[in-house]
């Protein structure tokens, strides 16, 4: 990954993009992509980059821009903030964390507080509502000048590189995917393509997947590939012996299961073999729980695949991914799309 790409990824990670207010992230994405592709937006907040849009065969690659967040629920008379989740927050991780509140009066910092009895009377299945945020203000009136009900709350977390290859930050799920589809588009912009390519930084995946549905319904793609993250199985306590083993640093993981079009997976595997790239596999028997699920059911139905980046500590402030894996996903998607003729028949069964 060169410096330009790394700076782009770092800027995306620093931009706040809670599910429902992704505009700061999307502006950075658009300003980067418009240097090599035609760009567009829509009413759901999607950011889109297009190459060869006049082609009949259209490939949609989607990576979502939104990150998990919390929202202000109420402020008590003493100035403590109570909150709820917006996406898959893990409440057990919350006590003692630093957060940023995206208030209408500007961003303010706070900590998720706890009392002296927290160790002994902590709920066995905690909820966000079991905790509070302390911003250092002494009363409700003072704090209401800066914060109101509905304001988003994000983990305080800055991008950090460990041992050169490992990237640690909140929001790798799935700003890495948004980054990857932009870099695929950049790489393909230097080639003569036989298909149209639509890279979309989608919105709302962590809550309702509104962006993926809107993008696919508008573009009407011939095929779709969602680019997201998946759980690793190589840390202590994870089951590394299951048939869906996924290891950090071992390359992209292709999903296998009912939602996935076998023909697209065959294309991905063929291109991976050509460029000598190792692949991993994960099982998605019924749903993928990614944008692929919404793309699949748009229009008359869209054949889809899911290419995932192995990730440690998902939905935490310290998510970890390998730069080597990120580059590998970019190379796999770029090679597969460049290999397309535009005459592919993706039906699993021919009459």
Key attributes of the depicted protein:
Elongation Factor Tu (Ef-tu), domain 3, 351 residues, Aminopeptidase, eight-stranded mixed sheet, 2 domains, six-stranded antiparallel beta barrel
Can you describe this structure?
It is a single chain. This protein has 9 helices and 17 strands. The protein folds into 2 domains: 3-67 and 170-339, 3-Layer(aba) Sandwich (Aminopeptidase); 69-155, Beta Barrel (Elongation Factor Tu (Ef-tu), domain 3), CATH 2.40.30.40. Helix 1 (3-14) packs antiparallel against helix 5 and helix 7 (262-274) packs across helix 9. With 351 residues, the protein is of the alpha+beta class. The protein is globular. The protein has helices at residues 3-14, 23-33, 118-121, 140-143, 172-188, 210-219, 262-274, 291-296, 323-339; strands at 38-41, 47-51, 58-64, 69-75, 80-86, 98-103, 106-113, 132-134, 152-155, 160-162, 166-169, 196-202, 223-231, 253-256, 280-283, 304-311, 319-322.
Look at the helices and sheets and give the structural class: alpha+beta
* The CATH fourth-level homologous superfamily of the largest domain: Zn peptidases
Low-confidence stretches: none
- CATH fold node name of the largest domain: Aminopeptidase
Percent strand equals: 25-35%
Distance linking N and C termini: 45 Å
What string, H for helix and E for strand, traces the elements in order? HHEEEEEEEHEHEEEHEHEEHEHEEH
Number of domains: 2
Work out the number of β strands: 17
CATH architecture classification name of the largest domain: 3-Layer(aba) Sandwich
Question: Which oligomerization state do the chains in this entry correspond to?
Answer: single chain
Mean pLDDT across all amino acids? 95
Q: Any idea what the radius of gyration is?
A: 21 Å
Name the helicity range.
25-40%
Shape: globular
Characterize the biggest β-sheet. 8 strands, mixed
